Amino acid sequence: MQDHVLVVNCGSSSIKLALYGPEDRPIASALAENLGTAEARATIRTNEKTAIALPDHSDHEQGLAAIIDWLEANRMLQSAPGAVGHRVVHGGERFSESVVIDEAVTDAIEECADLAPLHNPVNLTGIRAMQSLYPNVTQVAVFDTAFHQTLPSHAYLYALPRHWYEDWGVRRYGFHGTSHACMLQTLSGRLKQPSRSTSLISAHLGNGCSITAIEQGQSVDTSMGLTPLEGLIMGTRSGDVDPGLFDFLQRKGLDPTTINQTLNRESGLRGLSGKTNDMRALEQASLDGDEHATVAIEAFCFRLARYIGAMMASLTHCDGLVFTGGIGENSVRVREKTVARLAMLGFTLDPERNRSHGDGQQGAIHADGSHPVYVIPTDEEGMIAADARTLGAQNV
Ligand code: ADP
């Protein structure tokens, strides 16, 4: 299929949209923010960045329509796209791969909404908006959880009463699956071996952070759980805490909603530093002598190193430890501090290769004789575009 493909990622008050040309070449991307408020606005990035006006209080459908109008008026999209790919956060146990969206699929996404109340409903809003803008175009759902449906039961079950799993689906699902799958695909391509024989540890470190053990092409352990709150320290999310904290805080007078919001939005790097969730800003603050920033970075790397150690228990060999996401791809310091704790596991960095992010080395940043360590840029949107194109072509 040589048509264009659109990729849509709807957040609660935002839309990220990307337009891909034939051969999945990215042509334009758009970001709409503050939807539903008087400050609703959008920018489109092609070779340059353009702000476009949105009506006050634009909702998702109006935001998408304005972006598509602009792409059409500027001759980037001259006919309906061949397919639209939607990022959907939670597919529960129903979806282990991307699917063409029909009514049964939208019903299932709705059913999974109690597992991802902040994400699935708004993902559905984006799907419905695009269905009404393009009623005859194949819409494809690509799930954050799908790649992790290969987790064995010893990895996905919590040590909780069994009926919580059976009755309510309480288990570890894992997220960022598209990015971890992208690491598998890219590393196996670089190593010129099939993905089914590639094993790695993939550390996706962006605003959200998760780590996955991939054994012979399959996700076998991952740090995020029932929700994206579990695991590593993230920008504003706490990651692992003692479950006893909930009772303690409730006895201190905090209600469950406040506790949940604080763990999701005011914790992690932001909570530890008392300042910001932005790693680049924290690194600067630490250089300027801010002790809270220094300890936030130290805690982030310590937790990450612990998890890398834990992930080794799921692998029989490791073709690479891979860093990706905004922090993983760009922070020399985080990689250095994390891997410095892993010498006993056989990982050592080459400082110069680390400083240049593996440029000219196929992303390799390890010292000679170490287990391999790579920096690989993630391309979740490209993965969604490719799935949408494939399923769109099968669905004509
Ligand atoms: P998202 O999960 O929202 O897609 P990103 O993957 O873009 O986020 O990651 C954002 C994080 O990457 C921020 O904490 C940001 O500070 C960090 N980051 C980006 N560039 C650098 C850099 N040069 N050094 C350190 N951290 C960086």
Automatic annotation (TrEMBL):
One of its GO terms (biological process) is acetyl-CoA biosynthetic process. The active site is at D144. ATP binds at K16, H204, L205, G206, N207, G208, D278, M279, R280, G326, I327, G328, E329, N330. GO terms for cellular component: cytosol. Pfam families: Acetate_kinase (PF00871). The keyword Kinase applies. CDD domains: ASKHA_NBD_AcK_PK (cd24010). It catalyses: acetate + ATP = acetyl phosphate + ADP. Substrate binds at R87. Mg(2+). Can also accept Mn(2+). It is found in: Cytoplasm. Keywords: ATP-binding, Cytoplasm, Kinase, Magnesium, Metal-binding, Nucleotide-binding, Transferase. Pathway: Metabolic intermediate biosynthesis; acetyl-CoA biosynthesis; acetyl-CoA from acetate: step 1/2. GO terms for molecular function: acetate kinase activity; ATP binding; magnesium ion binding. InterPro entries: Ac/propionate_kinase, Aliphatic_acid_kin_short-chain, Aliphatic_acid_kinase_CS, ATPase_NBD. Its EC number is 2.7.2.1. The record marks H176, R237 as: Transition state stabilizer. Its cofactor is Mg(2+); Mn(2+). Mg(2+) binds at N9, E380. NCBIfam families: ackA. Homodimer. PANTHER family: ACETATE KINASE. Catalyzes the formation of acetyl phosphate from acetate and ATP. Can also catalyze the reverse reaction. Belongs to the acetokinase family. This is Acetate kinase. It comes from Tamilnaduibacter salinus. The lineage of its organism: Bacteria, Pseudomonadati, Pseudomonadota, Gammaproteobacteria, Pseudomonadales.
